[in-house]
Write a structure and sequence with these properties.
Length: 234
């Protein structure tokens, strides 16, 4: 028996168009959400990478600061003796900063040179840079810059608030590991006379992505033994 269905009809063009429009809106919302999640995940992953890289750099600096007699091995003398220039003491750091030139050779960089996506550090006695540790960010636009600053350590007090002259034989340095993009003119934030960086201004720059600071101490054994003059002070 054949059954005839009266008034049977399919979807009209307008109904099909409405369904497609709704599907398109839903797809756009879902795509936007997925894109936002992906972008957030990417930003978080890069921040974790910067944190881990900073940790590794500071761990290497700590290792260098624990090398026995490194200050004397590098031929450095006290603040008031043996200086060949006004800033010789301020510029004499035990950590050597390196970047590759166009030929792939690793060369020491100056304090105000821009950072790089791929950098290396080693100790100041490593003349051939054979012990260097290399650090690189996955994002080619992200740069790493390491800043070093010697701190005056003459007013160190004991728990009894009396001067602790023994500690004046220690040299204290503040190291900042900076991650940024675009450009920064580091000469604007360095005081040639004191050798101090304006760390607070630098880390507040809009193109700075992440920064870490840490203080390291290392002793000049020759100074503490009286083998180097200078009234026992830096």
């Amino acid at each position: 028996m054949q059954r005839i269905v009266k008034d049977e009809r399919g979807l009209s063009f307008i109904e099909v168009l409405s369904v497609l429009t709704i599907c398109g809106v839903v797809f756009a919302l879902v795509s936007g959400l997925l894109l936002s999640i992906s972008k957030t995940t990417s930003i978080q992953a890069e921040k974790i990478e910067m944190q881990q890289t900073a940790n590794n750099i500071l761990a290497q600096v700590e290792r260098i600061s624990n090398i026995s007699g490194i200050y004397e091995q590098a031929g450095y003398l006290g603040k008031f003796v043996g200086s060949s220039g006004t800033n010789a003491w301020n510029d004499a750091h035990i950590v050597k900063l390196l970047q590759e030139d166009g030929t792939g050779e690793w060369l020491e960089t100056s304090r105000i040179e821009p950072g790089g996506n791929r950098i290396a550090i080693t100790d100041i006695t490593d003349t051939l840079n054979q012990s260097k540790e290399i650090f690189q960010m996955k994002n080619s636009e992200t740069k790493i810059k390491i800043l070093q600053q010697k701190n005056e350590n003459e007013l160190t007090k004991t728990i009894y608030t009396t001067p602790n002259y023994r500690d004046t034989f220690s040299i204290q340095s503040t190291v900042m590991v900076l991650f940024y993009n675009e450009k920064i003119d580091f000469s604007d934030y360095y005081d040639e006379i004191t050798g101090f960086w304006n760390y607070n201004e630098i880390k507040e720059l809009p193109n700075v992505l992440y920064s870490r600071e840490s203080v390291f101490c290392y002793r000049d054994d020759a100074k503490s033994k009286g083998e180097v003059p200078g009234n026992g002070r830096w």
